[in-house]
Design a protein that fits this description.
Length: 93
């Protein structure tokens, strides 16, 4: 790992990646935004180091991807619940 890489950027990447997992438990938008931020930071670190990730930046990228997948599943689940609720006739009250 290049010593000139910003350690603060690596820590921010890991923090966003880890925070995207519990952030996906809400409506999914927070987890999705944090996951995208972690991936953008990981790509920036990868560009600075010549294509290699290690340690905190690799953990941030993996956790960011997991958080994004969970967020997308949560968003799809909420859309399905809303659509099934409308289809069941509960909105006629």
């Amino acid at each position: 790992m290049d010593p000139n890489v910003n350690k603060g950027l690596q820590i921010a990447c890991m923090a966003c990646g880890i925070a995207s997992i519990p952030g996906s438990c809400g409506y999914g938008v927070v987890g999705l935004a944090l996951g995208i931020a972690a991936l953008v930071m990981a790509n920036k670190i990868s560009a600075q180091t010549g294509g290699e990730l290690a340690g905190m930046s690799k953990a941030g990228k993996i956790c960011g991807m997991v958080g994004m997948i969970l967020s997308i599943l949560a968003i799809v689940g909420f859309i399905l619940m809303f659509a099934l609720g409308l289809a069941s006739g509960m909105s006629s009250y």
